[in-house]
Structure formats: C-alpha cells, structure tokens
Amino acid sequence: MAKTIYVLNGPNLNMLGTREPDTYGRATLADVEKLCTETATDFGLAADCRQSNREGELIDFIHEAHAKQAAGIVINAGGYSHTSIALHDALLAVKIPTVEVHISNIHAREDFRHHSFTAKAAFASLSGFGIDGYRLAINGLAAKIGAVSSSKK
Ligand code: CA2
Fold it and tell me: Phi/psi at 54 (nearest 5 deg)?
C-alpha cells in the first residue's frame, strides 16, 4: 500500500482564493489539495489533506499521523505558526519528517510573522512561492523519505 503524507492547513486557509489575492493568490484550498494529491501520486504517495481553524484539532491530526504511521507531514499552520508552542511540541513528539510551508514570504511582512514555532520542528521551511510551495515541499519530503518520481523510474 502507498505510504501516506499528511498535508495540514491551519486557520483561515479555508478562505484562500476569496480575499487578499495580492498576498495569497487566487487559488482555493481545493486547488491546493488537488496539487498536493497530484504531486504525492507522482511519487507513489497518498496525500491525506486536512484543514482546521482550531489549534487542538491540528494537534489531533498530528497525533493521528503518528498513529497511522504517516511517512511525512507538510504543514501550513497559518497564524498558529507564529504563536503555537503546542503545535511545535506535537511535531517534535511524533518525529515525523515535516516541511513547513507559507504561501506568502513571511520574512517580507510584519515583524510578528518572522518567527515560526512550526519551522523549528520541521526539517525545512518554504515561504513565498505561492501555492507552488506545497508542490516543492512534497518534492523535498519525497527526497527525504526516499520516494521516487514516476518520471525518474
Ligand atoms: O503565507 C502563509 O501561508 C501564512 O501561513 C498565511 C496565514 C498567515 O497568518 C501567516 O503569517 C502566513 C494566514 C492565512 C490566511 O489566509 C487567508 C486567505 C485568504 C483570505 C483571507 C485569509
């Protein structure tokens, strides 16, 4: 059976494509999840995509990823990236290879966005590539866990 990666999106990312197109583009969360599923499939992986506006539910998803022996996590924790020690602790506890994604370049924005707790628990962090960051994150995660693209087989 295909290994599974969890793609976790945090608060307000369900609003993608509806507001602030200059910052976040015009793609919707459904577009992001389709991109992730297609990219994962190319590497022989399954993508389990979840979104929540609640910190505790995101932590439950991370615990679930551990229980289901997920091969990796891609996470955009939204605003919780900058505040949540609890999400940081959950990611460290499960020891699943994790890549953090931000659609916008958080370092070119307000100071309060420059620090990320989730980045500290991830082996890599991508910021500013728009939704293509999710595709790049899955590519990097695949390389980390030894999954090979069908185009290279
Ligand atoms: O750039 C990113 O991906 C962020 O994680 C997005 C978060 C923000 O708090 C982080 O600093 C950077 C906010 C997500 C809000 O998404 C919206 C999308 C469209 C309309 C309104 C909100």
Answer: -120, 130
Q: How far apart are CA 85 and CA 41, in angstroms?
A: 32
Query: How far apart (Å, rounded) are the C-alpha atoms in residues 72 and 129?
Result: 20
User: What is the full DSSP assignment across 2-61?
Assistant: -EEEEEEE-TTGGGTTTS-HHHH-S--HHHHHHHHHHHHHHTTEEEEEEE-S-HHHHHHH
* Residues contacting ligand 1 via CB (< 6 Å): 12-13, 15-16, 18-20, 24, 76, 78-79, 81, 102-104, 106, 113
The closest alpha carbon to 74, from 138, 3, 146, belongs to 138
Query: Rounded to an integer, what distance in angstroms lies between the CA atom of residue 129 and that of residue 137?
Result: 10
Helix (H, G, I), strand (E, B) or coil at 150: helix
Q: Could you report the per-residue pLDDT of 2-54, keeping only the tens digit for each?
A: 999 999 999 999 999 999 999 999 999 999 999 999 999 999 999 999 999 99
